[in-house]
């Protein structure tokens, strides 16, 4: 059974007003004071962000429990300092992001200017174990057309600086401003992948391999492929749904590779259009079908994803969990829909944030 791990970035906010709070350093210091507590929280680019990473898990029930526990611990540590956390991929309220104080972040601020100031965006990264870099690159080549579907499921960032953007995932549009972000062409082998990464670092435009922001990449720290397209999910069960589907995609792609099935040859231009469509529509409109790259209802495309990975889901024992979680997601809506419904009911973006704080903690 392939293991799966999840990284989530959370927004630190004032529990009363919903305003983002630049206090990640204080929250991290407070978490470190807990005797014997394992360090699961990490600093991120901006002081209004707090990140955690789960352990690799085979059982999705355990993964879900760990995500819930980490969210609650993050809220507890922040609460002791007068703040709380929200699983929001962008801040609905206006904010002036504060870049973290260390040499890496300062280099990025100097190099990229306003792009860094705008990157107060929170994502969900899913790591799935692979046997080798060769298998990992084969997987990355074969899952490319399905990544926008994962992005649509997770979409949770309709608001930006106090306004409705018209997008379900505006975070993904902001993220594309990094020079190394987005879909990739086919690599064909681990050697070509590593050569491309080395060439990119050698330009001096990015600092190091950690700044390879491909939609899916080989992790530089773990024996995994890392899916990087998703917004942080408002609800923890959606994050687990993404983890199940990501593992299913990896297993299905690895089998295709071993059986000699060639990856779809869609161009980067088409993949960028599919990603834009997913960011705009989320689950409320149409998506580009990964096989045809033509518009179809979002629910039809999501069902096609489940059909594509069904065999892998059955063998992992995840099929019924995926069906139940997907039915709930389509009924309730993704984070973007929930946020817009909160605004329609309350008329207040502050109430949107405080409502999402409650959703974050279940």
From TrEMBL:
Q: Which GO terms describe its biological process?
A: modified amino acid biosynthetic process
In terms of InterPro entries, this protein maps to: GCL_type2/YbdK_subfam, GCS2, Gln_synth/guanido_kin_cat_dom, YbdK
Keyword annotations for this protein, in alphabetical order, are: ATP-binding, Ligase, Nucleotide-binding
Record's catalysed reaction(s): L-cysteine + L-glutamate + ATP = gamma-L-glutamyl-L-cysteine + ADP + phosphate + H(+)
Keyword presence, Nucleotide-binding: yes
For this chain, one GO molecular function annotation is:
ATP binding
Name the job this protein performs.
Answer: ATP-dependent carboxylate-amine ligase which exhibits weak glutamate--cysteine ligase activity.
Report the sequence similarity comment from the record.
Belongs to the glutamate--cysteine ligase type 2 family. YbdK subfamily.
Q: What name is this protein filed under?
A: Putative glutamate--cysteine ligase 2
């Amino acid at each position: 059974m392939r293991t799966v791990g999840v990284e989530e970035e959370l927004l630190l906010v004032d529990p009363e007003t919903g305003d983002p709070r630049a206090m990640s350093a204080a929250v991290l210091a407070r978490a470190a004071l807990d005797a014997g507590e394992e360090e699961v929280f990490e600093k991120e680019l901006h002081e209004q962000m707090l990140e955690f990473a789960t352990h690799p898990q085979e059982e999705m029930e355990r993964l879900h429990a760990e995500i819930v526990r980490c969210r609650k611990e993050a809220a507890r540590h922040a609460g002791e300092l007068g703040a709380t956390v929200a699983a929001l991929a962008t801040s609905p309220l206006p904010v002036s992001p504060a870049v973290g104080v260390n040499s890496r972040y300062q280099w990025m601020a100097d190099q990229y200017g306003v792009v860094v100031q705008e990157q107060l965006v929170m994502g969900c990264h899913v790591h799935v174990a692979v046997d080798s870099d060769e298998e990992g690159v084969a997987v990355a080549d074969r899952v490319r057309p399905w990544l926008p579907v994962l992005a649509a499921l997770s979409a949770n960032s309709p608001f930006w600086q106090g306004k409705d953007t018209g997008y379900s995932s505006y975070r993904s549009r902001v993220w594309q401003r990094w020079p190394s972000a987005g879909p990739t062409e086919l690599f064909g082998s681990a050697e070509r992948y590593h050569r491309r990464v080395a060439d990119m670092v050698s330009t001096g435009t990015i600092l190091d391999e950690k700044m390879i922001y491909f939609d899916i990449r080989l992790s530089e720290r773990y024996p995994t492929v890392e899916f990087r397209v998703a917004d942080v999910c408002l609800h923890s069960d959606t994050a687990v749904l993404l983890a199940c589907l990501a593992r299913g995609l990896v297993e299905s792609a690895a089998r295709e590779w071993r059986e000699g099935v060639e990856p779809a040859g869609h161009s980067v231009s088409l993949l960028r259009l599919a990603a834009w469509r997913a960011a705009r529509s989320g689950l409320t409109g149409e998506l580009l079908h990964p096989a045809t790259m033509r518009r179809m209802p979002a629910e039809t495309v999501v069902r096609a994803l489940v059909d594509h990975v069904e065999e892998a889901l059955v063998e992992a024992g995840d099929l019924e969990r995926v069906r139940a979680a997907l039915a709930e997601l389509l009924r309730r809506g993704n984070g973007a829909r929930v946020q817009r419904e909160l605004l329609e009911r309350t008329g207040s973006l502050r109430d949107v944030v405080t409502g999402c704080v409650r959703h974050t903690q279940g």
